User: Which sequence fits this backbone?
């Protein structure tokens, strides 16, 4: 480690006051140490006269440059900001980690420094993230505020005592080659105006990001109307029946309803007219997905609406469930930007016209199904197959798994759950049970079938045993254990737990051990209970649904977090198992081989690929580098699904891009749509999608 001396303008007796460090002019009041790095004292001046010195971080696990006061500690303002003038000396982006310490307390952030001119790196002296501002992903950095090129750390973790800063460390994580950065001055300022400035004026009157351009971005109402209403020429699909079934393949049984059938070695959905059907669907095809909160965030919009303006309303998304727990600015006035833009292109009474235009687009792009969360009004149009969700709510017992992103798991052993299921099924089937265009029903959505981490598979079992004796799930598990293990002594030995009576196990907060090699009975019993749990859930839903609507398909539970026991139970009771997975190809998301063994079909009911080059800051759960790569990724995924022989459909999530400032539900703000928030299609992507869909779903020609 080498130590250098740098000039510090300020006082360093005991506790230092405001700090201004000039890297180019050394003095004895502050020390800089290097670890696997070098600091060249040669002054390098910019065109504007700024002085910088070069630090080179060598290839090693964590090369670093560390500043410490020669005496005492630095006194920085609470909730203030550290500013660093810095320039990337490389022709590529360099990752820089900043660690500010006060004794054993740390505040850390990692930023990407792009090549180019000098910039001001701002580090808020408190923890923050885009979620605190109501969105999942923050605005891209750096940005030009008109006077300065700024790079604000929008993700900062930890906590410090700003009154006693003892160390500031800059490091690069394991560089493969020497990385040179130029350092100018470092100072601290009161307040976090830089952070607020990063989010100020980022959305224009059309809901578009203001600091970037892309081919589909529009500047005025005339352009929006012209481009949203433009209809490219489409070649009518041939060799398809009225529902989208393939008449070029051998005919199958015609029942008057969608159903499943195996032909040779592959499973198919079958249209009411008896033709093979691969469901190419789109989720969330509705007019209400462009809602984003404005209240408390007015500074983010160049033209925020007032309360009572068209396409506004109010809501409250505050809750303790995982999807909303740490989201800020999440209640009050919202603005439906997408609906406002649709009204600009189609008029204020646009619902019916929007549905016609949307179905025309989807059919032109060779989609044949409306996926989950889509506008129920499409059901009356009878031009495209659709799906219906069964959303089971009630005052039944629930079980925590530790994941609980959308809430706790329903307890299917609770008689109240069966009653709630019957009520939900009656509501879902009303008015559609005799409609041949209905593909089928989903039950719930992405339930917390497992927890997180390597032992997450057992979370429902351990969560059930942690409940009190009144829990129906716990009663079911205890009944199984007593039947299987006999007396409590045998159970205690098999599980390696110090209990002498079943009452101790039945008591609240019983802590069940995770499965381990020394006690294989734990895993065996947990697996058996998870099979009981999943079987009870799917049997309850299937029985209720088939009684209310014997014609249509039970499409499973849209499984995201799942276990082998859940997949097996779904395959047993559902007509089709629905899987939500965000992977490069389906087989990397779930066990396709298992479904071949079960000899039952499955369907991917959520997948997508997003990029960050069309406005919204997020690039989705499955990110790709660019808009062009989205089309390639779509083709790779759908082609693999068709080739599997067991998958009978793929449903894209979602139709419309999410708002730049995050959707009302939980702040998601990704570019994952077929159309933008202006309702203008992404032509390059939809062209690729059309070619893939025409290949996967049949029908000659590719529409555009």
Assistant:
């Amino acid at each position: 480690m080498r130590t250098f001396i740098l000039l510090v303008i300020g006082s360093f007796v005991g506790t230092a006051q405001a700090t201004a460090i000039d890297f180019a002019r050394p003095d004895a009041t502050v020390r800089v140490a290097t670890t696997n790095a070098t600091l060249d004292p040669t002054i390098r001046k910019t065109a504007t006269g700024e002085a910088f010195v070069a630090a080179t971080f060598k290839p090693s696990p964590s090369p670093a440059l560390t500043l410490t006061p020669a005496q005492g500690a630095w006194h920085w303002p609470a909730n203030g900001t550290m500013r660093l003038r810095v320039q990337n000396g490389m022709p590529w982006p360099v990752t820089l980690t900043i660690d500010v310490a006060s004794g054993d307390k740390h505040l850390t952030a990692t930023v990407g420094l792009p090549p180019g001119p000098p910039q001001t790196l701002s580090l808020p002296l408190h923890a923050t993230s885009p979620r605190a501002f109501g969105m999942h992903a923050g605005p891209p950095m750096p940005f030009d505020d008109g006077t300065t090129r700024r790079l604000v750390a929008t993700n900062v973790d930890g906590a410090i005592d700003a009154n006693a800063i003892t160390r500031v460390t800059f490091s690069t994580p394991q560089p493969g080659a020497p990385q040179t950065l130029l350092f100018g001055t470092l100072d601290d300022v009161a307040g976090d105006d830089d952070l607020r400035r990063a989010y100020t004026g980022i959305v224009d009157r059309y809901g578009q990001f203001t600091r970037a351009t892309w081919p589909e971005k529009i500047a005025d109402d005339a352009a929006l109307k012209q481009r949203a209403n433009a209809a490219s020429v489409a070649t009518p699909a041939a060799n398809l029946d009225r529902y989208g079934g393939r008449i070029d393949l051998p005919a199958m049984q015609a029942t008057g309803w969608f159903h499943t059938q195996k032909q040779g070695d592959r499973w198919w959905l079958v249209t009411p007219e008896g033709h093979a059907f691969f469901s190419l669907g789109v989720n969330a095809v509705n007019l209400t997905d462009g809602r984003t909160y404005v209240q408390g965030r007015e500074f983010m919009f160049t033209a925020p609406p007032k309360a009572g303006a068209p396409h506004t309303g109010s809501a409250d998304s505050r809750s303790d469930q995982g999807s909303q727990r740490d989201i800020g600015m999440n209640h009050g006035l919202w603005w439906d930007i997408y609906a406002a833009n649709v009204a600009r292109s189609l008029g204020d009474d646009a619902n019916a016209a929007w549905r016609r235009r949307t179905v025309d687009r989807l059919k032109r792009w060779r989609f044949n199904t409306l996926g989950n969360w889509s506008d129920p009004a499409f059901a009356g149009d009878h031009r495209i197959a659709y799906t219906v969700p069964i959303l089971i709510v009630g005052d039944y017992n629930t079980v925590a798994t530790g994941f609980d992103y959308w809430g706790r798991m329903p307890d299917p052993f609770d008689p109240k759950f069966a009653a709630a299921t019957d009520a939900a099924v009656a509501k879902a089937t009303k008015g559609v049970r005799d409609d041949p265009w209905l593909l089928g029903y989903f039950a719930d959505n992405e339930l917390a079938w497992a927890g997180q981490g390597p032992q997450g598979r057992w979370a429902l079992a351990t969560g059930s045993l942690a409940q009190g004796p009144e829990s129906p799930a716990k009663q079911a598990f205890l009944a199984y254990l007593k039947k299987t293990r006999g007396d409590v002594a045998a159970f205690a030995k098999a599980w390696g737990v110090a209990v002498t009576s079943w009452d101790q196990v039945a008591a609240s907060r019983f802590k069940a051990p995770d499965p381990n090699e020394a006690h294989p009975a734990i895993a065996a019993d947990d697996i058996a209970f998870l099979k009981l749990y999943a079987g009870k859930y799917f049997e309850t839903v299937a029985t209720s649904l088939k009684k209310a609507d014997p014609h249509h398909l039970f499409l499973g539970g849209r499984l995201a977090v799942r276990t082998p026991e859940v997949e097996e139970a779904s395959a047993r009771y559902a007509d089709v198992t629905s899987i939500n997975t965000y992977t490069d190809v389906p087989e990397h998301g779930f066990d396709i081989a298992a479904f071949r063994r079960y000899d039952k079909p499955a369907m991917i009911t959520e997948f997508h690929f997003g990029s960050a080059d069309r406005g919204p800051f997020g690039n989705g759960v499955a990110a790709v580098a660019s808009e062009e790569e989205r089309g390639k990724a779509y083709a790779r995924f759908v082609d693999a699904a068709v080739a599997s022989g067991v998958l009978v459909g793929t449903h894209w999530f979602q139709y419309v891009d999410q708002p730049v400032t995050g959707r009302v539900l939980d702040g998601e703000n990704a570019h994952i749509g077929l159309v933008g928030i202006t309702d203008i299609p992404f032509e390059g992507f939809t062209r690729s999608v059309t070619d893939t869909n025409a290949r996967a779903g049949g029908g000659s020609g590719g529409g555009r």
Remarks:
- The chain has three domains: 2-199, 280-293+347-451+525-697, 456-523.
- The radius of gyration is 29 Å.
- Residues 1-16 have pLDDT under 50 and may be disordered.
